[in-house]
Design goal:
The chain is α/β, with parallel strands linked by helices. Helix content is 40%, strand content 11%.
């Protein structure tokens, strides 16, 4: 493809261009096309669905095959670039693959800036598996000596779409959140921050680590209050027990490396009293980040559409709320709290009263939910057999 190298504008390569954050970044980079050139790195440029997403942005860009498993496509994609935007994919080998991408990019003497979408640390004293993974990548990028900016993002508001059928039709939201709070952030804010850092950097963002969060650190009840106000109906809140989640993960199709990491993440989040909210996004954007009430108002139609889509795909409504009936395998609450964790859960889970609820709270009717193929990032479906885009949406599995 014609990359039009040499017209004076710096070239920005967005890896993971069709993922949530990559796509949002390209949309906002469209404001700067008189100053920069955009190269969209796409694993499969023959995928009409993904290419259509890029076309809908109406942003002028070049397309480049960028398959992290194929070094030739990596070398071709990074040729002549000045800036690299990294949106980590979802795979167990993603860190090593992204290190190879960085190595290929820094061999290009024109490279002067790397921007990485990373994960927000819930508790510096007890790092989760995800945080350890991405910290290793952060350290690797730092070691290159190339100016960098790390965007550590909290979970995405877009995760709520995956619960839209239950929120809209059953007036309920259930999450593995007991005492923890989440500074939910809108994907569009991450994209705007990334685009500003990439296109307007005059050195002020070099060698910086920025925490990109929403303006509020919300508990589950506060999330449902915001939804209730904007959706004009009462949404009830249900806290789903973490131990039940671990048991369900071990029996589901979630890949083993994800089971331990996902449960680890929520365990730290629920027990951490450290606030994880930041004003960095507002400083980069020049405005306050989007609050949940505003986001819900802006996306009300999407809630309705997603609800109908999910129900239509499954043929019936999901029942994600806890029930009083326990399966024989969890006949007593005492047995539920004393049962050993799955062998692939590598950390102790402290028993709590709410952990005595049945695994049916998680597993009921979920066998029909579309399977996880990978994603908290997503990220980007943590609770059940969630679709890929939810795991990505919550920032846990990141974009693909």
């Amino acid at each position: 493809m014609d990359f039009r190298i040499g017209d004076g504008r710096p070239t920005i390569l967005v890896q993971g261009a069709t993922g949530q954050v990559g796509l949002s970044t390209i949309q906002y980079l469209g404001r700067y096309t008189d100053l920069i050139k955009i190269r969209a790195g796409v694993r499969d440029i023959h995928n009409p669905y993904k290419i259509a997403k890029l076309e809908r942005t109406r942003v002028p860009m070049d397309l480049s095959v960028l398959d992290l498993h194929h070094p030739q496509s990596v070398n071709r994609a990074v040729k002549g670039i000045n800036k690299l935007m990294i949106c980590p994919p979802n795979s167990s080998d993603r860190i090593e693959l992204l290190k190879l991408l960085v190595q290929a990019a820094i061999s290009n003497p024109m490279l002067d800036h790397i921007v990485l979408v990373s994960i927000l640390q819930a508790d510096p004293q007890k790092m989760t598996t995800f945080e350890k993974e991405f910290l290793a990548l952060e350290r690797f990028i730092e070691s290159t000596g190339v100016p960098f900016t790390i965007l550590r993002c909290s979970q995405y508001m877009e995760n709520l779409y995956i619960f839209s059928d239950v929120i809209i039709k059953q007036d309920t939201l259930a999450l593995p959140l007991s005492s923890g709070r989440i500074p939910l952030v809108a994907v569009k804010d991450i994209g705007e921050c990334a685009s500003n850092v990439l296109a307007t950097n005059q050195g002020q963002y070099n060698f910086k680590v920025l925490s990109i969060t929403g303006p509020q650190c919300l508990h589950g009840e506060e999330i449902t209050q915001a939804l209730s106000e904007r959706l004009q109906k009462h949404i009830s809140w249900k806290s789903v027990p973490l131990k039940s989640a671990a048991m369900w993960f071990s029996q589901s199709d979630v890949r083993p490396w994800h089971v331990s990491a996902l449960v680890d993440y929520f365990e730290v989040l629920n027990y951490s009293n450290i606030p994880i909210m930041s004003s960095d996004a507002a400083l980069v954007m020049g405005r306050f980040s989007t609050d949940l009430k505003t986001w819900t108002s802006q996306n009300y139609v999407h809630f309705l559409e997603k609800a109908e889509e999910i129900v239509g795909r499954r043929g019936k409504l999901r029942d994600l709320t806890p029930t009083q009936n326990q399966p024989e395998s969890c006949a007593s609450s005492e047995a539920a709290t004393s049962a050993p964790s799955s062998p692939i859960i590598t950390y102790p889970v402290t028993p709590r009263d709410d952990m005595t609820e049945s695994t049916e709270a998680w597993a009921n009717d979920s066998v029909h939910i579309h399977r996880i193929s990978c994603s908290f990032h997503s990220p980007s479906g943590v609770l059940f057999r969630f679709p890929l885009r939810y795991l990505s949406a919550i920032g846990l599995l990141f974009d693909i």
